[in-house]
Amino acid sequence: MGAPASTSSSEVLMSPLSRRGFLGLGMSAGAALLAGCSTPGSTSVNAAPVIPPASGPVKLTYWAWLKDLQKVCDIWNAKNPNIQVEAVWIPSGNSGGYPKMYSALAAGTGPDLAQIEFRTIPEFLLVNGLVDLARYGAQDYADRFDKTLWGQVSFVDGVYGIPQDSGPMATFYRPDLLERVGADAPATWDQWAQVAAELRKDKVYIDCFPLADPSWFTAIATQAGASWLRVDGDGWVINMTDDVTLATARFFDKAIDDDLVTTAFGQYSTPWFAAAADNQIASLTSASWGDALLEGVSGGEGKWRVAKMPRWSDGFGSSYIGGSTVAVLANSQHPKEALEFAIWMQTSKEGIDALIKYCGIGWSPLRDYIGEQREQPAAFFGGQRYNEEIFLPASKEQNPDWSWWPITQQSFNIIGDGFRKKASGGTLVDAIVTAETTIIDAFRNKGLTIRKATS
């Protein structure tokens, strides 16, 4: 995957994308240049000139749900008196942060910078909510970032966010609980099912399956090779009922039916922490940022280790859950200065180390630096250097063909509604099949062009 051709702000003046002009845009983890075209007859709206740098000091506002973010900003502020940054805490995106941003955009106000997840960027583009940072020189920094992550903020010849963190996946596990049944961390999903069955004899679950949040299932299907939506011509093509997705659904239908996993709670919930502290959870397959959460397990220090996540017979070595960007919202009057701060925060060792220390961000977006703290052995994980041993390789073994789409959160809500029916006799397979039809309707209700993939 390559980044789009570098274009300086003096060479191009791009207008923000109209809602219908976005129909042909795709976001792919595997290609930074996401080709597409507008629906015939559509035009871009709200064209605005590039805003020149300010002639004097400016104050930027940064909305995010990262804890202690102001401490990171203060490091910058101490060295940059002409560009001062104030962090304002907001609830995480789906807990109220995104509605707050949308309301501010509609009112012509809001922050300069905002934390926006990779999967949510397309939704902000539909309302012309983000500044194209390619117009301010963002492409000059593309080669500093992991190519996969840079691809997820790149659309055609624009850049709509600076990668902040990501979530390559692996398996956190309890060696002592697995040793009770003569097992090690399973290398394949078939082995995972076999170990899970043995653990149930000891009244231990290998993991849980969250019915309410389909993000985890989506990540596992992605690892198997699924690619649910893609752009074709002037619209979207959907294929949620491909062989690998349905095979993944059948696998976990059986795992749930056989009581190999619990559906009583989700990962990192209060009941999950209680069960983990009571030696009832032997492992969890999750993202890199789960390490900090695991430290909340009472009495867990020294008991956990990290291994590669189980693999399917085909597909990829890892997958991903979560991940955020630093985006510049459309109403900012200082996008050049905002980009300058964002680049410092996400590409300097000083900025990355501060984000890890104070905010506990996920996996670093840089190609060649995971953070000083993450280069050290971890006491909680028995001195294991798991970031270098496990997560660094995992970050290079992800599905390059997965694309997010403009109504991702609504789609997840639809899938989650179907998954909940599993508790009353439904199946994951039926939920996926039904969700595909409902998502097609949801696209069309928003005026977006979509069709079902042909076999």
From TrEMBL:
InterPro entries: Bact_solute-bd_prot1, SBP, TAT_signal
Keywords linked to the UniProt accession: Cell membrane, Lipoprotein, Membrane, Palmitate, Signal
Matching Pfam families: SBP_bac_1
PROSITE patterns (UniProt xref): TAT
Gene3D superfamilies assigned: Periplasmic binding protein-like II
Highest classification ranks of the organism: Bacteria, Bacillati, Actinomycetota, Actinomycetes, Propionibacteriales
Keyword Signal: yes
The name this protein goes by in its record: Putative sugar ABC transporter substrate-binding protein
Cell membrane among keywords: yes
